[in-house]
Specification:
By secondary structure, the protein is an alpha/beta fold. Helix content is 28%, strand content 28%.
Length: 421
Amino acid sequence: MVVNDTRVPVTILTGYLGSGKTTLVNHILSDKTHGKKIAIIENEFGDVGIDDALMAKNAKEQVEEEIIEMMNGCICCTVRQDLVVVLRKFSERMKQGKLKKLDSVLIETTGMADPAPVAQTFFVDDEVKENFRLDGIVTLIDAKHVEQHLDEEKAEGQENEAVEQVAFADRMILNKTDLVTEDDLVRVEKRLKSMNSSAGIIRSERSAVSVDNVLDIRAFDLKKTVEMDPEFLNTENEHEHDATVSSVSVIEKLPLDLDAIQRWFNYLLVNRGTDLYRMKGVLNVANSDERFMFQAVHMIFNGNFDEPWQADETRESRFVFIGKNLDHDELKRGFQKCVLTPDLEKRKLASLRFDIGDPVECNTSDGWVAGVVAGRMYRDDFMPPGMVAPYQIELHNGTMIWAPEDDDDFIRAGKKARKSV
């Protein structure tokens, strides 16, 4: 170990799709205590950038970091030279005094990346080798889904990226431990250790680990790596992805219907969840001044309205699906059906069971109370973002309420109700 090495340490953050890499980067960005000047190089598998939006809030708050996003391709193969270009620019700017000396560079790879070719960059390019040192490969592990990905059979000549990410790790962060049992964790840790006994394992929930466990850990050992993979420094070897894994990306400027998009997501999770490795996006939802951000891994979904659209921000929906044997046309058609068009509004009105003036009964905190439908497809400023109620109802005592769903659990026919045709 060279203690007085003044080169900038570089951490390669890897891990399969949905393991929590962007969440970890967000954790580092929002940590005000480390005081480090960090350059973050972020890579995505799809051709529409999402992680920049996921990190935007923390990036604004932590101005000492400089985020560089590289997208449309995998950093371990098609855009590897772009990494060299970015690192050389950092070197030039530091030499010219235009950029303060960096404390660390953090490279977040796409979930489909083999870390070996990325690490190789720091030993085969002279200018990069002179100014940067590979500090360590940190691999995030999704405790709930890792066994499924490690067991996945690949065609001859294709690498299992999940296996490569574990094998080349200098440190493993076993993430999402709250989603599995202690017995599961013990079993997974035993398997990971059997694959890579030299890398320490740290458990985490929501990628919450100390920055000191990720940056400047001085863990990469070239000798150990070459012993494990004698072809490590051979630049002629090419990484071959699983051809059945692909990404679907969509950009849409028209606003989306919240109810339609929620129903579509639910359909995908139930019927396509096994093959959908990763979903993430930022959505422009009608009747909302806030962005809707979502992420999903297989059947586990997390989404919410996070912050208002900024005045200089383009209001548009961007999403990326990554998975196996994806029907691109089917996914794009499903998404387009969620766009709030006049035709969709007409169909939603036609599907309602009651007309204005129909007597109904509503399930309230006081039990079932009689009333009359006063409005359809109703919305006011006090309702949650994006929500449109199927009905506004005037109760028999004059109180105005709304029904959240057109369902007998919330609203049912009163006496002499007539049904829409």
